[in-house]
Amino acid sequence: xxALLDSIGYSGWVLHTLxxxxxxxxxxxxxxxxxxxxxxxxxxxxxxxxxxLGLWWAFDPTVGGIQMESATPWIxxxxxxxxxxxxxxxxxxxxxxxxxxxxxxxxxxxYIQNRQRPFYALMLMLEAxxxxxxxxxxxxxxxxxxxxxxxxxxxxxxxxxxARRIYAAIKFFLYTALGSLLMLVGILYLVYRAKxxxxxxxxxxxxxxxxxxxxxxxxxxxGAFALAFSVKIPVFPLHTWLPDAHVEAPTSGSVIxxxxxxxxxxxxxxxxxxxxxxxxxxHPVVVNTMLVLAVIGIIYTACVAAVQSDAKKLVAYTSxxxxxxxxxxxxxxxxxxxxGGLVVMISHGISTGALFLLLGMLSExxxxxxxxxxxxxxxxxxxxxxxxxxxxxxxxxLPGTSGFVGEFLVLLGAFEDxxxxxxxxxxxxxxxxxxxxxxxxxIFFNPLEKQENREIRDLxxxxxxxxAPLCALMIWIGWNPTPLLERMEPSVRAVIERVEGAxxxxxxxxxxxxxxxxxxxxxxx
Amino acid sequence: xxxxxxxxxxxxxxxxxxxxxxxxxxIIMFLCIExxxxxxxxxxxxxxxxxxxxxxxxxxxxxxxxxxEAAVGLAIIISVFRHYETVNVDNFKLLRW
Amino acid sequence: xxxxxxxxxQATVDTAAQFEPFFPGLIILLPLIGFLINGALALKHxxxxxxxxxxxxxxxxxxxDHRPETHTLPSYVGPGVMLAAxxxxxxxxxxxxxxxxxxxxxxxxxxxxxxxxxTVDAAIQLDQLSILMTMIVTGVGFLIHVFSVGYxxxxxxxxxxxxxxxxxxxxxxxxxxxxxxxxxxxxWEGVGLCSYLLIGFWFSDREKSDAGKKAFIVNRIGDFGxxxxxxxxxxxxxxxxxxxxxxxxxNLEYGGSLVTAVTLFLFLGAAGKSAQIPLYxxxxxxxAGPTPVSALIHAATMVTAGVYLVVRSSVLYxxxxxxxxxxxGVGVFTALFAATIALKxxxxxxxxxxxxxxxxxxxxxxxxxxxxxxGIFHLITHAFFKALLFLGAGAVIHSMHRSLHRTNDxxxxxxMRNMGGLKAFMPITWGTMWVATFAIxxxxxxxxxxxxxxxxxxTAAFGGAARAPYPALYQVYxxxxxxxxxxxxxxMTRMMVMTFHGSNRTGVEEAKHLYEAPPVMWLPLMALAVLxxxxxxxxxxxxxxxxxxxxxxxxxxxxxxxxxxxxxQAHHIQEFNLGExxxxxxxxxxxxxxxxxxxxxxxxxxxxxxxxxIRKNVRAAAEDPELSGFSKVLYHKWYVDEVYDRLIxxxxxxxxxxxxxxxxxxxxxxIVNGVGWAARGVGFIVSMFQTGTVxxxxxxxxxxxxxxxxxxxF
Amino acid sequence: xxxxxxxxLHYVWALLxxxxxxxxxxxxxxxxxxxxxxxxxxxxxxxxxxxxGDDLGWLALLGLLGAAMANAWLYSVTEVxxxxxxxxxxFRLFSNWIFLLAAVLGILIxxxxxYRQRLQAGEFYALILFATAGMMFMVGAxxxxxxxxxxxxxSIAVYTLTAFNRRDRKSAEGGLKYFLLxxxxxxxxxxxxxxxxxxTGSTNVAVIGxxxxxxxxxxxxxxxxxxxxxxxxxxxxxxxxxxxxTPDVYEGAPAPVTAWMSAAVKAAAFVxxxxxxxxxxDAIYALWYPILWWLAAIxxxxxxxxxxxxxxxxxxxAYSSIAHTGYLLVAIAAANETAAAGMLFYLLVYTxxxxxxxxxxxxxxxxxxxxxxxxxxxxFGWSQPLLGVFLTVFLLSLAGFPGTGGFMGKIYLLLGAxxxxxxxxxxxxxxxxxxxxxxxxxVAWVMWMKDPETEGQHNRIIVPFPMRFALLASVGLILYVxxxxxxxxxxxxxxxEGLGTFGGGLIGQGP
Lengths: 525, 97, 714, 511
Description:
The complex is a heterotetramer. Chain B has 3 helices and no strands. Chain B is mainly α. Chain B is elongated and about 50 Å long. In chain D, helix 5 runs antiparallel to helix 20. Chains A and C meet through helix 9, helix 15, helix 17, helix 18 and helix 19 of A and helix 2, strand 1, helix 6, helix 7 and helix 26 of C.
């Protein structure tokens, strides 16, 4: 396989292709006629997916740094370049994106009944944007893609969403934009520092890594970046946009949102926050703040999820809890925690994505998402129920599914230095059963009382095609995550080494400054 | 000498400003503005005693411009009067908030 | 995967040169294959029956040979894979018997999780303990599978049932054969999952579905402890594989706080899985599942996993006197507590459920006093007689159910008040169940006598050890254990009498439809009955064998010696730190004396209670008056469920609601929306300056000008 | 060619674009009052088919083309000798491009409006040309006298244009308000000029700068002078609290005039503002920097907040334009080369996007003054998808979204602010940008996301050819600049060269 890929120069063009193919697809979709747009969009995204699969082999798992790099000057006077690259952290995010994009397009065939062409065009635009976010190695380019993902999502939620779609869309948009614009100022600060150092401004990630920053500067910049990413993740208490957005979004929007958009935040932590501001990232106040927020997120949102009457909202809240695990893993600041965080990201993408797909299929059939409206559906739709139970179990981290591997590693990592917090976070294991099982029971089990429920159809062939790979992945990752882990490890190690490499003097300096009361940690408010 | 002239100029200017603030008749307001311009002219003339001829040249330009402004301004006031039958600015409140 | 297993098996033989495993991977793999086949059939069948449900009816299963193929194949595949697995396990067992195996035999298949600092392989560990557990699981499992063929024959979810059952065996084998804590945890939660699925097998019934959910959630509380223990262990040892971990454990300080924490958290896990106080509440509810499931999961195998866990970690427990005392204490109090509740239950399965909780308590008492092999011993005998009791109860319920169903009677088929006099209709069931009752009551020479007596004796001996940590405490334990044995004899006799003796209370018409279970069901009963008699003879202590109680040459202390490689490390620690155990019980008397006393007491209780209960006028459920006084408290299980609901469940739900409705919706969203509204409010107010009057504009302009002038000039 | 201002005739060459504009304006006036046009216009009765005024429009465009050619030609000349009243530098020429662009777009979008509203085409187009010439005077001025003259040439023409629609009450009212307040503020500006003259003895910006840095100026006169000049310019750029006229005038003025003036007048004022302050008052940066800091901050915050509650789209865009003033004031407060270049670039992009947005507002209102409420846009996107997408692009660009020129402009401004360490101001800028998202996106959601109660209310929208051209050009340029900004950025950056040396920006600290 590797030889075949080499012979076509795969690693030279694939990254560009993954961004530009979907953009090209926008044109194709708009050009196709209304009824065929969905097929065009699906097959196009499937081609992108297939192209991205080659990364599995083309990626060199021994390299810790960024590979397949390429950079073309874009805005010379600002030092901006169109620079792409991939490493163990972004590899799976990219594949997850192409995968969930295809899946969610396929899942929209019935759901989206009007204005199909713009819908699929926006989906492809979203795909391009998200892939770009994960591939960009230039902060300017990253920021551009980061913001570009907002627009299609805004319209997808706002146009094809539910009753309160506009509120949800604008809330999503403003929340995210607030954080990201402050990050922009942070980026510019870095660039300005780079300019005074190098003589010319640069946005290149590799060069910005070289910029020496004082402890105070790091803390401020960390705050700016962390706010942007924390909103995106979302970290408690910045999470309230998420349930609204999820509930109102059409199925495919929810899927993409859960599967990849949230990951942009945690990806940002791994790619930018930790390496760029290593001193701030290990400052005890910062670490403890982030960990406490993560743990609150895990416990609190699990509780809130449990009392939701809207199934989609319930799953939306569980997303916050899952992402809390990721943050916990990241700020454990060790190999286990980070790798676990990455696995949770992947696993959450698959399992929560699948849950949203299933709930979408359910509401397509019944036109409601109220849990109370269902009951006993396993009797009329046994395959549906099977898929749902498998997914739900993966979501609550049953061993043997992908969810367990990630959460286990996260908690293992967090436990090394933060026993109390990790112990509290582990309570999330109990709470996950507390929110998930009652929902499964009330929808699929219990007596089949309502006539409408009796008429619910089982999975169609298309739906099986959508769900089967997802379920297979959940179980495969649960039993054999090593191929994933070994591809991540060098990159994760590089991040850890960078953080640990930040000198002890620098750390001491920061502490002195804090003791003198010069800085206020604004990392999270 | 220059100080007295400047004080007078500024007094005139303040007077003009005050007029604009308190009067409601568009034409009177415009006249107050003219008063301000003349205050400036006075300052220019005063300065030009020390600084040379430029100031006096400037005054001519100001006068010319003031004349042009007067022409346009009065035309606009007439236009407004056609619609409102008044030149009291308190009545022109179609555009607000 | 098959080939990988076999190859892997052959590749790593040299860790124990003498022992040659015989396809051990297949033991695990076979039930998985069975699960896949049955699962596929179940899915296929489910579509058909779903179509029928959608039309408003139920699928007509037909009788006998006319059943759909989805129903015949599981009958062979389900028990078939179990038999095959049992045979392979037996081969391995026999091979192990013939060699001296001091070190566990670990077979690695693939790297499961490897992050660079933490590695755990998908590996199985063959040693004396795991092979024994494997034998129990596959052997008893096979019998119960066979029984199920008869018991479930009328059920619409037949293939689904067998797929769950096979899956359960798969996870149970992962649990007992896994070579590391994480892998054990996979099985640990996996069996929990299957338990959940099987308890809620008839998911259309809200109560049954609730029971499954309750089991899962309560188990997860235990799993929380297991997880924390694993994290602590990883911090202490840097590995979670059994072999390196336990060999490192020798270096730990005796009674250290870390090891105490680890063992206590592990015990939380064990308490969840094995239904000990305070997490026992799910097990009685779990009786909602099909009765063979209760026999397999909730009596013979899964619920004993906690005991297995403690024995597996015996090194750690031996190092922590506090944890051991806790284990023993929780065990003995659970034994007593559950036994009291069992006294007043009328549902035949509930009695057995509380009896199981109680017996599990005995096992924990055993492992808590350092008698690890004895704990396992009771686990084995209990697996035989409790499985037999449940299957017997299953046969009774099966018969009752069919009879009530045919006569359109809506009485509860599990309520003993509706039974009575069944001896006449079901003689085999009656006979085998009495065997089991004698066994559980601890009557010589049935299996339970040897195992339970050993536990009680070890408690006394441990409490009297030279440097025993809390001698008084152990004496209390010993007294309670003895007392509970009497209670056990009483409630079991009561159950037997109410079910099989006295007058028939089913009703005349119904009684015509009562009959003995088919051979496919009673054959396993017979097999288990035999085991319930002779099962105890594998481990008769030297002291008893010197007297007639030991049955002479028929018996041996085999189990103790067999498990010695697993437990010797723990025993060394214990001996080193506690000194020799006592030869005398607290009130004097040696092992033999007390064995005689206890069996006499038990026999006396059985006889007395038989006459007491048979004379009591038991009325059918519908006519039975409400209980009062202390009986009512016992009948209502000390109101523990209600207390939990009041103290834990409801507050949790209320807190959750508060978090959602107040913190999320009011506070956080309130701030978010408030900022939005405030911005627009300010905007609105500021826009009010835009009055439309030129003078206002000029005034604002002038004020601005004055400010700027002021700032720049002064 | 070299221009030597010691020879009076060379002023003609240096002012060639302005002269061409003035001449063509006069020609249009003369042609416009000739019987043919007057008659044709009246006879047609303002029906939409009448194209009588179009000829004059094309004539005006021809004049603009001539000016553009002259402007291009000026790139080839070099200036020698004493510094004069007129600058021939790239800074001026770049600004000229902005005015020419604004005028071209303004005229292109006016065609339909002019005949729908039966405006006198001749005077209308001529006044646009005159005003453009005034702007050019303003930005080319190295002498405060010329600045003043240019300002007045521009202002008087714009006053007239504001009140141009005599049939419309609002137009007249807006014109009056603009006129009164404009003249009032001119008084402050003039007084400032007088005091500068008194303090330094010159009205030439370069000489003033030298005098100040040599310490020859009287600070007692200079500080009120700078304050008064700030007030005068702040009025023209409509910074809060000197902005009060803006919403009223923008709402009252004929829509194409609003579109054009919101971009061009602001640009002219800003460029002159920048030149006077950065070249003339560079040495006393510390004196005026805090004033501009606060002006920028208050303007950004206030305008964005008020814009939130607007229901009329013209008025909303007016407040949005004030908000953009705030962003641009950051550049002046930063006062360094990057900021200056950023300002030029931003003005260019702002012209495109703001006029584009107004052009669509005009087509939705059927080239009249109706249906201007945001709620009238319900269902607009789906019945006019192309226009809807265009408006969305314009709004996203105004909001500063990546992929559009507005984003690049904002980044440029922020980079300028960064160089002067204006971090707090940068944060205010981005925070108020978030606020602005709300009202820009409100239009987007009204037109795409709300379901209309009545169908077909946007079916009769007509976009005549010139406006179509203007829209396509604007969208194309905005996207082009948003995706490939290098050429434009480079152009803006090189246009700053030779403007002067700035040292002031480097001493900036938080106020």
